[in-house]
Amino acid sequence: MSGMDLRRMEPRLVKDISKEISTEFTMLRIYLDFTEAQFARLKHAYHNMDDQIFVMLNAWHDVVVRCGENPRHLLAAALDDCENRFLAVTKLVTPKELDELTPREREPREETKKLIKEINFTVPGDMAGTRPIFNVGAPNAVNVFPGGSLINHGELSLGIKYPEMLQSMMVHYYDKTLSYVPTSALNNWVQAKVVDIYMPPNLSLMVKDKDSGIFKKTAKSIQQYSNMFLNNGKYNRNIFIQGESGSGKSTFLAKLVMDWIQTTKSVKRIETDYSNTADSDTRVISANFFKDLTTLKEYTFVFHVTLRDSVNEFMILQMIKEQIIDQIWSDKKERKNMYKLLNGIMKRERCLILLDGLDEWTGNAGHILPALAVSHSQCDVLITTRPWKVTETEIPNQKISSLLQLEGVNEPFEISRRLLGCRDDCKDSKDLDKKQSEFKSYILKNDLRKFLISPMLLQLILQSWVEGTEMKGSTCEVYSLFLESLIKKANEQRRTFQKPSFRCFKRTQYIQPNIENVDRLAEAAFHLLFSNTRDCSLVFSDTDLERFGLDEGERKEFAFKSGILSAARKSSSLGSSFSFSFIHKSVQEFLAAYYIACNTHLIDAIISGYLNRYKDAFMDISQVFIFLCGLEISAANKLSSMMNECDLYWRTDKFPNIILSGYREAVANKNSDIILQLSNFHFRLPVTEISDLYNIWIKNTSNILSLYLFIDEGESQSSPERGECASHYEFDMSSCSKLKKLTLWGKNICLKDSSCSSISGHVVWIVLNSADPLPAIPCIERIDLIKVTISSRVLSSLLSSLLTLDHAVHCKLACCSITSNVQGSDTAVSMTVLNKTLEIGFGKDSPGLWDALHRLNIKSLSLDGGFLTVLLMKHGELLSQSLSSLTQLETLTIHLRAYIAIQPPQSLKNLNIYCTTLLPSKLRELMDTLRACTQTIESRLEFGCAMLTNADDNHHEERIHQIAPEEYIPIVQELQTLKNVSVNRFRILDRIRENKRRVQEFCWSAHSNGDIDDDKQNGDNFKDDLYTVFVRCLDDEIIHRISMRLLITPASTSRVSNQYGCNT
């Protein structure tokens, strides 16, 4: 390609590249520096995407060439950034050329970018009548607009407004399928209008943490559609709502569709009849939530898709065709016309697409999300899913415009009141008040409130209570009674278990007489859930029913009469058929867990292979695992080991909470011998929930690889009124021989060693080295401590252990309280430790840190405090004392804003000091100090010729005062007269330009030094990172700096006293 003209690309090449660009079109626009307004104008002017791409590239190319830039390099780099390297290296450059492009060659100059942003996309005669008019049908239609054109497809009956007709039909379809929701978890046919019983969800905004990359819930509550769909006045393109099973995600989407219907012209505004309940007053509570229907009015169409019914589909357009168009129209010809209309609408109209249940969609050919065609750029997408799917699918950041957390309902007892209000015996307000009060007392008495966050379980518990069945305890018990209530509808024969295999079956009466049917359903639930093909794991066919003997006779009647299985009619081009599913995914998961508990060999025989086959499988079966912890703990222990092995590879922060939930379920079912395996501990917990975590910890210490512990601030568990000491948990690190990463965050955490006495007020104690003298945590690679308490003695002990390791360890202390006999302090420190070498960067003067350095076995020490304001460095003397105690120290490197007096230890051989400012008097003081040493010291001095003072009374703001470099020359001249001092370099450098980009080259020029021998040492034979930092960060106000190299040999005491004959 070397013979090609690099200044211009042939139009044919631009055209060929245009044809190869598809899904990356939008991203390419960004990397080519076009604005969103230009992009919108481009799409307005050219309706064909191929034309849009070609016009954009052609215009961009001409500007780039006119500016003297290389379009091949810039376009290849942009394609590479859009992850289309193949197109870049096959059409524009060689792979080697692409890899060797410098940052400057990959990005246009600022003036070029400015001209690109001035490109205006227009077409000749761009006015009314000149743009193509899209229509469906009318092959012989006449274009009445001069200069325009009419795009025709199929047939058209004159006078029919197809878009309005589609909208009207969809409204009627939604009114039949989404306007009613079950009010009983036991009877799907007991339903009420969603607008009658709906209560606002507990929705919170989640944001991505910059440091960890993890989405975290914020305190911002989402209470209006504008909060959900808009960001700074612009509509979000891809919105995700995550929530656990049964939290109300599907119902929220149904209510959203009903609200959108109110904004359309296709129906009159629905007037909800409240006369059927005695509780119309409670509706005021929800009146202020999601009332801004004008936000939804911007969407001409809202398409609701259930992903579990389209597991084999990848394109969203095809899903809408099958789930909406095919359900409304049966005639093939009508469907064909509607398909074309649908495609046109999605290209030109603002649409909202609701995709319900991403966690129930298996994906297709490696795709992580259902896809919109690039031409459907007017469509926004709202997706619901379980939380694990967002984490494990590794969805790119640009695909998530907004992430929301749905945690059930805000007022669960208001939901229960509305559900009770639908009953015939609660029509009178007094009867309703009495019933509601009794239900609330029952919930609080039996500690069931934790289940009410899920609308599905709330319905179940309420219905069971109304029918006389009371629930107590675990999730397994709740689902056992749920199953019990379903079975009762098919067979009212009652018999209890004499010796129930599982504790949660103890109080059941209807399961035992129907155990054969339950076992057969459990077998189907398991094998479908863990099938080789995930397509049919949740929605399956009559062939699958036949495999498990559920297709005919008594078993089929039992499955469907009980409601454990449900059926739905599906329409397709081949005719109608039925699909089947369990009443809810969580019910299928409970039955699958029951089947595993009865057949524990399946863990090795089937589950092991399933986990190896799908990367996210260990998260997908999380609820099965939690149920298994309550049913059969030995099997759960084994399964946890397999799941933990998967987590070792994928490292998700969600998995530890699954183990924690499993542990709590096992405890709730009074199981013993709980040995759930977990290697990567990643927990953020309130201070009151440490106990369960601690019990998991003590069973895993020898296998732990990482510990991230964030303790939310709160009150201690002590009882001051009774004078009791605070309860605490000791996490002993001495057994953690494999631990590589340790992160501790919270004021309730204290680090201590085995010799420390009890420290009141801290709930979590981290014991570092109870197995002394062995190194604590010998495999550790990183330690992050934030807001924890640590004594200088413990910190010293930790550093002493780390200095013995043969690998680098990176440590960070932020906002930590370092207690010390000298003085306590808050600190901000980063450290790297490697084989008796310690590098410290500090942002605060920390007496506790200086105390911790005392007497450490360090050979090389680097201190970087170059960003600490001089006047805040108040404990230099303590630091100097600690430095003098380092009897093994051979190399000391210091970077500071201003010089502080130091006391070099007798072992010191190399001293490197880099100061932003250094007064001549301080230089004399330093020389006196060094010449007093009894060993040979090679010293490197770099400093700015300036003085720092504070600005008025503000100790955080400094002023720089220049010092003429000539004031330092007499000192050097005197040094050169001394026999024990060799001045190998004295060089004055003048600033020749500002260092705005923080690069050290070309900012300084050597200055003539008169009679001084400029440089006997023509270069440095070692690399010093702190020197690089010093030069890059030297204030632009400093216009002179000095570079010195000295070799100082021991001098007699008599010659040291006042060599210079002047005051310092």
From TrEMBL:
Pfam families: NB-ARC. It comes from the Eukaryota. Residues 237-360 form the NACHT domain. InterPro entries: DEATH-like_dom_sf, NACHT_NTPase, NB-ARC, P-loop_NTPase, Sigma_54_int_dom_ATP-bd_1. Transmembrane segments: none annotated. PANTHER family: NACHT DOMAIN-CONTAINING PROTEIN (PTHR46312), NUCLEOTIDE-BINDING OLIGOMERIZATION DOMAIN-CONTAINING PROTEIN 2-LIKE (PTHR46312:SF2). This is NACHT domain-containing protein.
